């Protein structure tokens, strides 16, 4: 038997499109570690850059379809503009990952990274991959919350994923601060432009964490 909330939703819903959009987000995040490792090793990253750009185009097409759907008289159990903003946050994350790939394609660092610094940066990348994975799980769980008419057990599952996002975002902040301090400590040793470039890459990864946490907070608001 369908729940009251489920009966409000058509077969193809904005939420299902958001879940599909999140799957693209996850696909892109899965290549970030390979992209970054190849970049630090001065290997060719063109294939990864093309892959991310193609996925970003797929996400844009889905976003357009999402907006058209919301323009129609479709019932959703939350404000349409709020839901549109949620997708906007998710799309921003894909855009930032594409920005990282394009920036890496434009410039390789002239100086070799210290082993500890490279290890910290790769850990930052993995934390970003984790936060996206937890975020996608939270978006998927949102469908179960609605289908169960906001059952307590489903809302608890949702809250668990959101807390995971928040915990990982805290780790991302710690790593970002550590890497930023290292970059500024080398201002008299290395090319200033390369240090700025390195710091900018670090900050984009940090912003992905911020966006993910903001979206998780919005998902939490949907379940209350």
Describe this structure in words.
The protein is mostly helical and 224 residues long. The protein is built from eight helices and no strands. The longest helix is centred in the C-terminal third of the chain and has 34 residues, at 152-185. The protein starts with a helix and ends with a helix.
Average pLDDT value? 90
Count of discrete alpha- or pi-helical segments spanning 4 or more residues = 8
Largest sheet: none
What is the count of distinct domains? 1
| N-C termini distance | 23 Å
Name the CATH class. Answer: Mainly Alpha
Task: Sum up the overall morphology in one term.
Answer: elongated
- The CATH topology name reads Methane Monooxygenase Hydroxylase, Chain G, domain 1
Unreliable parts: 1-10
Percent of sequence in beta strands? under 5%
Assembly context of the chains: single chain
Residue share in helix: over 70%
Q: Can you tell me the CATH superfamily?
A: Phosphate transport system protein phou homolog 2, domain 2
State the order of secondary-structure elements, H for helix, E for strand.
Answer: HHHHHHHH
Rg (CA only)? 19 Å
CATH architecture type:
Up-down Bundle
* Helix vs. strand class: mainly alpha
């Amino acid at each position: 038997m369908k729940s009251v909330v489920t009966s409000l939703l058509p077969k193809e819903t904005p939420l299902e499109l958001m879940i599909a959009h999140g799957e693209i987000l996850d696909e892109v995040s899965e290549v970030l570690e390979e992209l970054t490792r190849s970049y630090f090793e001065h290997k060719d990253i063109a294939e990864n850059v093309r892959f991310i750009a193609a996925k970003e185009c797929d996400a844009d097409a889905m976003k357009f379809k999402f907006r058209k759907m919301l323009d129609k008289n479709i019932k959703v159990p939350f404000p349409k503009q709020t839901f549109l903003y949620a997708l906007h946050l998710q799309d921003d994350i894909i855009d930032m990952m594409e920005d990282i790939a394009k920036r890496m394609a434009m410039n390789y660092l002239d100086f070799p990274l210290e082993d500890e610094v490279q290890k910290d940066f790769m850990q930052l990348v993995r934390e970003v991959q984790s936060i996206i994975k937890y975020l996608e799980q939270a978006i998927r769980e949102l469908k179960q919350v609605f289908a169960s008419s906001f059952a307590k057990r489903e809302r608890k599952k949702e809250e668990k994923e959101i807390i995971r996002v928040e915990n990982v975002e805290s780790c991302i902040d710690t790593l970002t601060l550590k890497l930023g301090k290292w970059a500024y400590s080398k201002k008299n040793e290395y090319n200033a432009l390369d240090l700025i470039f390195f710091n900018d890459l670090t900050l984009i990864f940090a912003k992905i964490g911020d966006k993910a946490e903001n979206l998780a907070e919005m998902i939490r608001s949907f379940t209350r």
